[in-house]
Amino acid sequence: MDKQILKTVMLDNQKEVQRYEVFKRNFHFEDFGNYVLVGIRRAGKSFLIYQRIQQLLAEGTEWDNMLYINFEDERLDGLQVSDLNLIIEAHLEMYGKRPILFLDEIQNIEGWEKFARRLADEKYKVYITGSNAKMLSSDIQTTLGGRYITINVYPYSFREFLEVHHTAYDELSLLSTESRAAVMNRFIDYFHNGGFPEGALLAAKRNYLTSVYQKIYLGDIAARNAITNTFGLKIMIKKLAESVKQPISFNRIANIVSTTGSKLSTTSAIKYVEYAESAWLLQRINNIAAKLAEKESNSKYYFTDNGILNLFLIDGNTSLLENLVAINLIRQFGKEDAVFFYNKGVEVDFYIPEEQWAIQVSYSIKDLETKERETDALIKLSKVLPCRRLLIITFDEESVLQMDNHARIEVIPVWKWLLMLR
C-alpha cells in the first residue's frame, strides 16, 4: 500500500468529517477509554465517530492529533493487516505527533484485532467501528484482552427519531391535541420505516431501505461468507420475516426453503442464520422454558430495524408491532440471556428475568376473546415465574386491568411505552 494514497485518504476524510452535520446522540465517551462500536450497517456508528471527533475539535484538539480512516474507501482495496502500521507512519510523516485513532469499519481487514491489541498495549487512544457481530466473538475478545469497551449501536430509538424531527414529546406536549397528533404521525413513520439515521429525514424511504438491505444481504452476508446459493439465502430471510412472531427450527427453515425449489440443508440453514445474525440483520430470542438443545434450535428471530422487516410484509402491522417491542427490549437489556419468550403450556411473548417483566403484544384487545387469551397467559405465567410487572403492549389502547386474582395488568400503547424506556 502506497503511503501517499493513505495520506490523501486521511486528508479527504478530515474535510468529510468536519462538514458533516451530526445529530448528537446520547453516548458518553470516557476520555481514557478505548471503544469498539458494533451494529447493523447504517445504524450510525460512523456518525458517533464524527460526533466524537467534532467534540474534540470544539475542545481544542487539532487534526495533527487525530487520525480518521474508513476502511470501506475503495482506494484502500487490497489493504492487509500487515499494512495497518503504515497508517500511523503516514500520520507521523505528516504531523510528527502521536494520534488518537478512529478506525471505521475495520472488520474488512482480516486479523485487525491483533493490531488493535497492540495499539492499546502501546497506550494509543482508539475508537473502532464494525458491522459484524463476530467482532464480539470470544476469540477476538480474548485477543483484545479486555482493553476495549464495547458499545452496541442501533438505529434511532423513537425518542431520537422525534428529536431529529424537532418534535416535542414532553408530558405537557402530549396533553396538547396538536402536539400529540404530531408525535403519532412521527410514530407511524417510525413504525413502518424504522430508524436508520440517514433515512430518517427522507420523504420516500423505501428505496433507501431497499438499498441498505441489498448491501447487507449481498455484501455483509453473501459475499463475506462466500455463499453461492444466494437465492436460497434470499428465500430464507423472506420466510423468517413472514414468521417473525413464531418460534422456528432450523429443520423447518430448511424445509420451507427447499419447497421453493432451492435445496437447502439443515446445516446450511444453521450457517445462514448465523451469518445473518453476525451482520446484525437478525436478533435471536430463546424460550426460557426450553431445554438447552431446544433453546438453540427453536428460537424466534426478529429484524434489527422495522423498516427492513416491512420490505417483506403485506399488511404486517401485528408483526411490526411485536418486532418493535422485541428490538427495544434487546436494545435496553442486552443481546445475551436477557430477553426471552415463554412457551410451555402457555405462550407469553416476552419475559425479562432481570426486571421480572412478562409482556404480551397485541395490536388490539377490544375483542373479548383476544383480551381473555392475553390476560390468561400472563396470569398463568405469573404462577410459574416471578412477575413484578404484567404488560400488554398494544398499538394505541391504554387501561389498567384489575383481575379477579388481584393481579394488575397494564395495557399501554407502544408509542408511549417506547418513550418510557431509558
From TrEMBL:
The keyword Magnesium does not apply. Keywords: ATP-binding, Nucleotide-binding. It comes from the Bacteria. It comes from Bacteroides cellulosilyticus. GO terms for molecular function: ATP binding. InterPro entries: AAA_14, DUF4143, P-loop_NTPase. Residues 35-162 form the AAA domain. Residues 220-363 form the DUF4143 domain. It holds the Pfam family DUF4143. This is ATP-binding protein.
